[in-house]
Specification:
Helix content is 36%, strand content 23%. The protein is an alpha+beta fold. The protein is globular, with a radius of gyration of 20 Å.
């Protein structure tokens, strides 16, 4: 475990005997804050994620997030530079030091395109989507699932390479549900940790005897692909209007027409976003389809 010192008057912190200077706030969530910091020794920028741990369970979840980062060394999964747990004023915080990706999230890229009245070329969609799939395959190959895949949890580096982030909802890919009590536990957990408009259908009403597996990520992956094609998630408007997302996800997704993308890409999306998880493909099949589409699509600009 890393060692941390308090934030001092000069606006700096120390993690693992290395000093970092606070620059500015980047983001803020329900239980975490992200600050931009600069390394005193190397002059590089980093993102410091501070997770508020309100109880023992919160601290355990933060530790799990650290362990998930440590588990993967993959170009499409965000690396962990350092970490520390500290107590301040009777409260516990987990500090995760992460690489700073200047370009921001995939969602910010899509918002910019939408504001410009533009769209993402199919070749670029396939390039980005393949990188997301490669990262997700690494997760699934180790027996885990991300559980909260969405455009805001995909960072885009300067080379247009997608990097999966926010590993706090990750857990074992296979969850065996035995009884109503366990089903409600999983359902309540999903309601807290899996973003509603990207949540797989089987997580809204968990059956009392079933197996939840990594194909929840495949559904979310389809939502991400849809967002790159349409510049909004397939159920974003349903949620914003206050309608039932749980009901909407039970039906096949409709691709707005006319659609400027190839029939092959549309078919891929339809094949991924299948409400019944037993009929949903795995990540290897998805990757094979993406590679096939790439071989028949002109190189991106």
């Amino acid at each position: 475990m890393g060692q941390a010192l308090c934030i001092c008057s000069r606006g700096s912190i120390t993690i693992d005997d290395k000093r970092y200077y606070f620059i500015q706030k980047l983001d803020e969530g329900g239980f975490s804050y992200v600050d931009l910091v600069e390394g005193a020794q190397d002059g590089r920028f980093y993102a410091l994620k501070r997770i508020l741990c309100h109880d023992r369970e919160g601290k355990k979840e933060a530790q799990t997030e650290v362990e998930m980062h440590r588990l993967f060394k993959h170009p499409n999964i965000l690396a962990l530079t350092g970490h520390a747990f500290m107590e301040r004023g009777g409260k516990s915080e987990a500090w995760l030091l992460l690489p700073y990706v200047r370009k921001g999230s995939l969602w910010s890229v899509l918002e910019k395109l939408r504001d410009q009245g533009s769209s993402m070329p199919e070749a670029r969609i396939l390039h980005v989507f393949r990188g997301i799939c490669e990262g997700l395959k690494a997760v699934h190959d180790r027996g885990y699932a991300h559980r909260d895949l969405k455009p805001t949890n995909v960072l885009m580096d300067e080379e247009d390479r997608p990097v999966l982030m926010d590993l706090g909802s990750m857990n074992k890919a296979r969850i065996e549900v035995r009884g109503t009590k366990e089903a409600m536990t999983v359902q309540d957990w999903a309601a807290q940790r899996c973003t509603i408009s990207y949540r797989a259908p089987e997580l809204f009403n968990v059956e009392s005897h079933c197996i939840i597996d990594e194909r929840t990520d495949i559904w979310s992956l389809g939502c991400v692909l849809y967002s790159m094609m349409v510049l909004e998630g397939p159920f974003d408007m349903v949620f914003q209007k206050g309608d039932s997302v749980a009901l909407a996800v039970q039906n096949p997704v409709n691709i707005p027409q006319p659609c400027s993308y190839s029939q092959g890409l549309q078919n891929l999306l339809s094949s991924i976003m299948v409400p019944n998880p037993q009929e949903r493909p795995d990540i290897n099949w998805v990757l094979d389809q993406v590679q096939s589409l790439q071989s028949s699509t002109p190189a991106r600009c």
